[in-house]
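Here is one chain, start to finish.
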Amino acid sequence: MQRITAIIKPFKLEDVREELSKVGVKGMTVIEVKGFGRQKGHTELYRGAEYVVDFLPKVKLEIAVSDDMVDVCIEAILKAAQTGKIGDGKIFVESLQRVIRIRTGEEGPEAL
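Its structure:
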């Protein structure tokens, strides 16, 4: 079992959700986050005053999948989230040692 964490642009969330649904992903966690990478923020003008926005809004997705679904999910995220411009985000993959469904007590792949 693996956890896929993807940091994407907020306006791409619905596209990514649709693509993941098409490949069989049943659920995910979505968290609104702020951060910066190579984008390094930007300058905005508000009421005549210039100010720097250091942290840009992003969306963090966490998806737990079986080992055989990892590559399919990554391709779906890339297809839906990629704009070709700086700030498209990152995808991280980590192993999950143990997964337990609280309601039933099921463990392992059945708990996903």
